């Protein structure tokens, strides 16, 4: 009914739609025939006044939206040992987490680790745009494990989580087992596909830290967090705060690093 | 079609849906049968790659959402002479304005001035919950004009603005002529309804500033901005940045202060 009544009128989403002024905006929107949705903290509030407001919305054909996914999609911003400038970037996202929690807004945080499209083409080197064929720069000793996820799969797992009670107020981690590998293992996989051995140049931590600082380089600092500090894999996912995507959705045929690398041959 | 396919699946709104990871989330959402909407900066981008992404969304039945209304609904946060703590509150909202503009997100800011429900019951006194029948406290000389708008009308004008090209990237001011009056005029109106004269106690600015500071009182500081500095009415609305609601929508029968006060008799 809303979509017929709403022909030609924009869809309206009200964040805070049961609040002091939000409820009047929602009422006007529904009355004027806009397909209307509200983001609410609690779709079944104990407070009878709030419950009555929500029932009024439902009677008016308003859609109740129940969960917020802030834009994160990288490291877990609450569990890392990042240096600047990544520290500040992660800190900003953690600050948004705290605001969401303080407001009691239902959430899912998605920690998808390395984007395959950004980090695999260069074989996890920063400032490189093509896959290496001669030489590859490895940060640290190359034995710390990082995690990659194809962007398509980040989309799929995120959307799977939308209506899933198991991901409510949890961090959804993407840790596809086949995509959890060290920089050395990644290089070996690529060497096998190339049919040749690359020269591996190892960058010690102190030199990496110097490169991160002058000028400040956020991609290098994130790489430091992952390859030197192990921040993709150095903690267990406790059910009190998190769930793992490939375990929740074993039927999703995720793209493996092995398959993804074939795109660059 | 989206609503049938989406039965039982939550509505999904993606902010930044044409971005690096957003587009994959939108694609997964539409594919999984969620009624899906995206907030975009530009619904007809010149960049052919962005245009192709948007066309793909439309082909998948995705709704394009085009404008953001941040939560403001008070003073114009860019045009005021507020003292602390109101200065910081307004500054926070101005900061959000700058972020919206920097990102190129289409917007409308609604400056609705005083909420009638919050400010009329007390006859614009702070910390008072019932209409005065003997004595009324007036800040300053009581001759500076402020503006009131009923919450219902704030909702109505806001929603009128949603699809109106005249309010795109503009501040929508609510300045209903019948609701623009000084504190003295407001008291006189109430006295006429009561059929008696109230004792008017005038609070000079220096005493008001002391009351604002100990302890910090945001409602008093906003009142200072309005009744001492005249921030509801001390500037013209230039078409380059703003439009006025009752002029844009003369057919909306707004609730006057005179009518609103009858609720308290």
UniProtKB/TrEMBL annotation, chains A, B:
Residues 65-261 form the NmrA-like domain. It comes from Triticum turgidum subsp. durum. This is NmrA-like domain-containing protein. Belongs to the NmrA-type oxidoreductase family. Isoflavone reductase subfamily. Gene3D superfamilies: NAD(P)-binding Rossmann-like Domain (3.40.50.720), UDP-galactose 4-epimerase, domain 1 (3.90.25.10). The lineage of its organism: Eukaryota, Viridiplantae, Streptophyta, Embryophyta, Tracheophyta. Pfam families: NmrA (PF05368). InterPro entries: NAD(P)-bd_dom_sf, NmrA-like, NmrA-type/Isoflavone_red_sf.
